[in-house]
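Subgroup meeting minutes
Present: P.N., E.W., G.H.
Scribe: E.W.

1. P.N. recapped why we're keeping a running log of single-chain structure predictions: easier to compare across weeks, and new members can see raw inputs and outputs side by side.
2. G.H. added today's entry (444 aa).
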Amino acid sequence: MTEYRAWFECISGCGVTYPLDRIVYRCETCGGLLEVNHDLEALKKRSSAAWIRMFEERQFSTRYPYGSGVWSKKEIVNPLVADENVVSMFEGNTNLFWAERFGKEIGVPNLWIKQCGNSHTGSFKDLGMTVLVSQVKQMIADGQPIRAVACASTGDTSAALAAYCAAAGIPAIVFLPKDKVSHAQLIQPIANGAMTLALETDFDGCMKIVQEVTRRKDIYLANSMNSLRIEGQKTISFEIVQQDDWQVPDWVIIPGGNLGNVSALGRGFENMRDLGLISKMPRIVCAQSARANPLYESYLKGFEEFTPMTAGPTVASAIRIGNPVSVNKAIRILKAFNGIVEQATEDELSNAAAQADRCGLFNCPHTGVALSALLKLVERGTIGKEDHVVVISTANGLKFPEFKIKYHESKLEDVTPRFANLPISLEPNLDKVLKTLDERLGKN
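Output recorded in log:
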C-alpha cells in the first residue's frame, strides 16, 4: 500500500472531499469544480534532492511505467493506481526545442518550444488521458461496473481517449462537432475503434450532451472538467524545468480553449515549489483566438466578470470554445502567476505559425496563437530580449494538413499569407531548372 494519498477536493472552498475512485465531476454540495490534492506533508518527507535524483533516474528508463514522462512523477500524479493497471504508451518526455533561429529573428534568443505534439497521438492530451484511463482500469479491476469512457472533443481529446481505451480494452465514445474537425483528427478515433458520434453543433453543444450522458454512472467522463486529466498535463511543467537542469523560465505561453492546460501547468509549478524543487515562478500567458476569446474579454475587465460567448469559426479549431469548463481554475492560476491573456486574429496566428515554420518548426494553428501572443508581447517590450521564454506547442502540425495547404495556396479566409511557399512547376529540362535555381538562390 502506498504511503502517499490523493483525493478530489472542491475548489470553491466548501471543504468537501471525495476519493479518486468516486464517480464525481463536480462538488455534490455546491456544484463547484474539483481538483486533485495530495498529502504534501507525506511528500515533503523526501528531500528535494532525493526527488530530483529519483526523477532523473526514472527518465527514459525501461522500468514500467516509470519511464513515462507522466508516471515518472507517479507519487505526485496518482499514487493510488497499481502499476499493473497503469495504461501508458511512454507519453511525455517530449522535446524542449531551442528555437534559436526564430528567437534571434524576433529578438528573443532564449526561446524554447515545448513540443507536446511529439507524443503517441500527436498532442498533449495523451498526458492527461493516461492518468484518467488508468484510474478507470483500476476502478474496473476493483469491481465498478463502468461500461465505457466518453468525451466531447474538437479532435485531440478524442484521439487520445480512443487510443488509450483501445490499449486498455475499454470501450470509448467520442462526440465531435460535425464538419469542424480536420480529417487527420477525425480518422484517429475511428481507427482506434471508438464509437464516434458527429453532432450537428459546436464543441460547447457536444459538451452539454456528454455531461448529460455521463450522469449515468456506467459511462465515465473524460473531459478536462475531470481533474484527473489535469494531473497528467501538469507534468509538462515538471518536464520543462527538468529538461533545463531545474531552471525555471521567465515566461510560459499557453494556447487557451477549455483552459485545462493553463490550470495544469500552474499546478505543476506550484507542486514543484511546494516540494522545494524550484524557488521562483514564471509568468504565465494564456493565448486565445480572437474568435473564441471569452477569457481575454474577462482579462480586460480585471477578471471582475466572465461572460460565455458563441465561438466563431477559426482555424484554431481545438480552442474554438466559448464556454470553457476550467475558467475559474485558470483565472486563479493567472492571478497567482501575474498572468496575461492575449488574443490572435486569423491573420496573426496563421502568419506566426508560418514564420516559425520557416525556421524549422511545423506548427499547429493553436501553437500559432501562442506564437502570435509572443510576437505582440515582444513588440510591446513586455517580454525582453534577455528573457527566458517557453511556448507550449500543443499538437503536431501533421494533424492539420488542410490548414497548412490552404495557407500556402492563399485560401484561408481573412489571412494574407506573408510566408507562402508553393511548389514551382517546371519541365524536366536542365537549363530551365538551373535558370530557376539561379533566379531563386542568386548566382555566385
